[in-house]
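Design review, sub-item: ligand-bound model
Attendees: FS, YL, KQ
YL presented the inputs for the FE2/S2 (inorganic) cluster complex:
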Amino acid sequence: MYDGVYSDKVIDHFTNPRNVGEIENPDGVGTVGNAKCGDIMRIYLDIDPETKVIRDCKFKTFGCGAAVASSSMATEMVKGKTIYEALEVTNKAVMEALDGLPQVKIHCSLLAEEAIHAALWDYAEKNNIKIEGLRKPKKDVHDEE
Ligand code: FES
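KQ shared the predicted structure:
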């Protein structure tokens, strides 16, 4: 039915997404969209104030299957990392972990990366800290395609 376009991991994370939902009073929250396809993703972070470790991460995605699978994988990957290490969770890293995405779906994983960055940015602003290497996220990732 999928004609081999999507890897087993993508199908698994789409049909059984991890970390769906919201965190009440999150330490950081970020929302990004893509005006072209109309998809929107929101990421919530729960961060240990002492160690800066991401204790929990949840997402809500109003978007395509690849965006759901990317958010699911990305949230799994940032959990247990510090806010600094979380920057390693790039869209490339997410795609690799998913065993690849079709060319036209690469921007879906970019949405996950940007939503995490937006949530980290929110946390940094609220706590008046600087996360080295983190740039101000865009609300719309469409421009980068
Ligand atoms: Fe836009 Fe997937 S088609 S996020």
